[in-house]
Amino acid sequence: MPVTARRTALHGAVSQSSDASTRPTGRGLAKHRKSSKSAAAPRAAAAVLSVGLAVGGGAAISVVTAPQTASAATTAKLTAGQIRGNASIASRPLIRFRDSGKTVKYVQKTLRLRQDGWFGNSTVGALKKFQRSWGLSATGYMNKPTWGRLTWAANHGVLYGKVGTKAASTTTFRAKVLREAAKLKGTPYRYGGTSTKGFDCSGYTGYVYKKAGKKLPRTSRQQYSATKHISKATAKAGDLVFFKSGGGGVYHVGIYAGGGMLWHASKPGKPVAKAKIWTSSVAFGRV
């Protein structure tokens, strides 16, 4: 009996010691255990749990996320190229390659290109051609001298011409005609007048053409006879437009301004002005 009691006690002692070594509990282990998970894992799990509770109909829980690198407000801002490409025409923005916007469309429209609003290779090429035709530096981007010429071209229907050729000479001459014609706006009508004190119709056209570099005869009929007669379809701003009576005679002359308009000295009490051509009984002439 004593021996049996000892074995039983010993077996219990060994069992307790084994349990204690294989299943440790209490603060002792927690105190010395190293965590193998990063601090970010519990936070990520908490965020997932929070979202799950909210979706499942639980109480609303705020989840704080890391700040984003770009906000919607930042992406909505225009780039420098878009700012230039949408600037007002009057400000003559320095538009260049890869800019985009409504003002780029205006440039493309004037250059008679497809208006996609993108200042790409085709726009650069057409602009260089335009610049060379007017003796400007062929940079391929919009600068102030180019804006001045381009807006003038848009208003008068004059575009290309090659410097040093007959076509360029003709185009440049018509441009001069239009500039001189516009300078005299408001000059009073004067029968027989040929100076800035007052003009009649042919006195006005003769004065303007002389300033631009070519001489015309005195009367409207003589001017008609001295010009090459051209069709309305081929007429350009700066050419002469003659008004014909029912019998075919010429009774009035003006300077074609393009788009169905002309510069002229019309009648007593009406100063030199730009006006709409009011009849279809007209003929066009080119010097």
UniProtKB/TrEMBL annotation:
Residues 1-38 are annotated as: Disordered. The keyword Hydrolase applies. Keywords: Hydrolase, Protease, Thiol protease. Pfam families: NLPC_P60 (PF00877), PG_binding_1 (PF01471). Residues 171-287 form the NlpC/P60 domain. InterPro entries: NLP_P60_dom, Papain-like_cys_pep_sf, Peptidase_C40, Peptidoglycan-bd-like, PGBD-like_sf, PGBDSf. Residues 14-24 have a biased composition (Polar residues). Gene3D superfamilies: endopeptidase domain like (from Nostoc punctiforme), PGBD-like superfamily/PGBD. Belongs to the peptidase C40 family. This is NlpC/P60 domain-containing protein.
